[in-house]
Amino acid sequence: MTEAAFLKGYDPTAYERPSVAVDLVLMGIRDDCPAVLLLQRREHPFAGHWALPGSFVGIEEALDSAAERVLHEKAGIAEAHCEQLYTFGAVDRDPRMRIISVAWLALLTGDAFAAALKANPALLPASIKVPWAGETGGEVRAMAPDGKVLPLAFDHAEILSLAILRLRGKLDYSDVGFSLLPELFTLRQLQDVHEAILGTSLNKPAFRRRMLDKGWLAATGAREEGTSYRPAELFRFQRPL
Amino acid sequence: MTEAAFLKGYDPTAYERPSVAVDLVLMGIRDDCPAVLLLQRREHPFAGHWALPGSFVGIEEALDSAAERVLHEKAGIAEAHCEQLYTFGAVDRDPRMRIISVAWLALLTGDAFAAALKANPALLPASIKVPWAGETGGEVRAMAPDGKVLPLAFDHAEILSLAILRLRGKLDYSDVGFSLLPELFTLRQLQDVHEAILGTSLNKPAFRRRMLDKGWLAATGAREEGTSYRPAELFRFQRPL
DNA sequence: TAAATAGTGTCTTTTAGACACTATCGC
DNA sequence: GCGATAGTGTCTAAAAGACACTATTTA
Fold first, then answer.
1. How much is the pTM?
2. At CA B65, angle to CA B171 and CA B38, rounded to 5?
3. Among A114, A173, B170, B210, which is 20 to 30 Å from B193 by CA?
4. Which residues are CB-contacts of B71 (< 8 A; sequence separation ≥ 6)?
5. B179-209, pLDDT tens digit by residue?
6. What is the dihedral sign for C-alpha A79, A80, A86, A89?
């Protein structure tokens, strides 16, 4: 950083600074399909369009703190897996003013997803449809529960695409998948989560083998209840030794 | 985004905004070891410490444009593979003021790396040493050509760690490795690049098989020159069909 | 006992590592 | 021919997919 560059930023009145915001992809699984929580915009621009929950970042607020604050304020969620996705900084991404947005991906369990809908009735659970065009992803679409395609505000369609791509990429080598499940779950539920995100069906024995070999699963001995067939064993996530 | 939140950001005098900068990891391979170009700070804070080249982002400048500008201005490089790494936004990462920094990874060919050193003599080529602690990465160290460990400014050691980790992760499934090589290269050179980044030695036949199977390599029929042994065939990178 | 899903055994296919072998260059 | 590295054939080991089979529960 040169001296000139430093001074350029040091005098708050000398140079205009961009606003910085965070936008959150609040993702869960609904009906074996990835779903995201959206808010409808009431004001210009993109009035009537749907947007990711977000907020400006305070001058004394860390980026991850801002993301967590949105999680609390907009969805009433105390805790969730939350990771940074990407920072979007095109000059004209918001027609009003320069806003640089740091996008985050938050993964919600079924319960957390439902709780958010209850805590903030303005949130709409939108299904994410991915035109499985090979692997490139193409553009994703967000669908309302009634099946209508939702127009997305700003560059939020791009953010949503990236969220799905990132999740697909990390699903197999990391433990993010467990963030979408309750504390106790069956292997079938885990496989359903993976299949929903990947958009493909997986081989059952191979999937079980791989998951068990990774050492992520702790058998509880307990079994699910209320089924009309053989109940599956319940597992718990554990970090490998 | 609520109305209140919008107004909060809309009036430039009402709320203080952070400065936004870009910092670049200019990476190349030197002596079969990843290397990065650093600048020594002359001013407080971290005077004497070494920092990644960077700059503030202009109010009418896109993030990727700012990154490219740094590439030109600080290293005289016209073109390089450049991808966003992560955005660092801890409140106190710069003691002077709030600066949010978007870190970028630029991959330089050997020629580009040498050209940068010539274009800006203040740049120091530092070897990156990774304490191969399993996979977690631990903290990387930057070493001057004379072998001295360089103290890094701000959170730039963290950025460097992330750069190496990202590169390692992408190396096998993406084509980033070719960005570190000249247009024509031998399979041995490609393997050397992979080994330098991964910090391990690889199996030759398996490596060749995998690379050829991916369809990334176009044989040229030409061979390297000036060797005192059998010259290897030169390949060119091509996108798979 | 029937229906439905849980969970497993095993064969095949694919892919990676090991290692030795052949090929080709300058000297 | 010698030395050195390029490039390959093949065996082995590990992992993934396919598929059928057994096991266990409720109704």
1. 0.93
2. 60
3. A173
4. B24, B26, B77, B80, B82, B106
5. 999 999 999 999 999 999 999 999 999 999 9
6. negative
